[in-house]
Amino acid sequence: MMKQIQKHPKITATFTVVGAISALAGGGNVWVTPPFAAQPVVAATVKQYTPNAANVNRLILTEINRLRAQNHLSALRLNNTITTGWSNSIVAKNARLPELQHDPNQPAALNRMGFLLTGENLAATPLDVTIIEGGRHKPAVTNDVDLALETVAQYYDDYGVPDYGHRKNLLNPYFTDVGIAFALAKQADGTYMAYNALDFGGNVSQSRYNTAAAYFNYSQQNGLSSRYPSVYQPSSPSTLAAAAIKTSTPKRIATVHYRGGVGLFTGYGPTARFTRRMLPNGSRWLVDRVAKDNVGRTWYEVGRNQWIDAKYVTSNF
């Protein structure tokens, strides 16, 4: 059996500049089904491959960041707040719909999470059947690595999407975080479709407002511009699998969340000695060890025997 893919991009931004708020919205809010000639089909077979969502999420993030590195852009962080607060629900909703649809409440939801700049990519990829994209026949997706590579390739190629909104979201230099979610749904013909949502978030300082606004305007225009060149050399399946294994253990990070900063101590608990150094509010530190003192207070080691009080930070673990 042969089936077509579906894609749907969206990009929005809210900039705050000198007390004024303006909004930019658009970026390919039209789902396009490219025409194709009728093809012979065979009876659907029993599904053999069931994606491991956590593994696919890790693989797709690894490949997206490889794409961004090829274009000299910083890596995106997987943001579990976005994933659980929005991406999971929008992908589950789309798995029940006949066509991919964005929810207009997405920008407001991510604004409440602290992101002024938002974007979203949606896609649906058939499993265990030959894929048709723009008249091209692509091999069936039969494992997690295939699914991750095919999803990123679909977004980057953006066949049938005049504004290349998916690619522009992947390569948006002002996005810093992404929520990733997948859902699996059985189709009427007995085949299975893997639905994906990528929800992007970012912020911009006043000093970068004009350049950010220019990129978001570009994201709403048809075609590509030499001002924002893009390249992509996809990973081989073995290379992607190996790279994902290296990044499978997330780093523990503590972010100072106290206006006056947090004090750095040698040792922790009753024997702690203040180093006279304050780690500034908003700074991020790798956590090597976690310990509790004799009164139950939690401490994080952020350097060799250098500790901070966990009360004044937030963490990703």
UniProtKB/TrEMBL annotation:
Coiled coil: none annotated. InterPro entries: CAP_dom, CAP_sf. SUPFAM superfamilies: PR-1-like. Pfam families: CAP. The keyword Signal applies. The keyword Cell wall biogenesis/degradation does not apply. Keywords: Signal. Residues 62-190 form the SCP domain. Residues 1-25 form the signal peptide. It comes from the Bacteria. This is SCP domain-containing protein. It comes from Schleiferilactobacillus shenzhenensis LY-73.
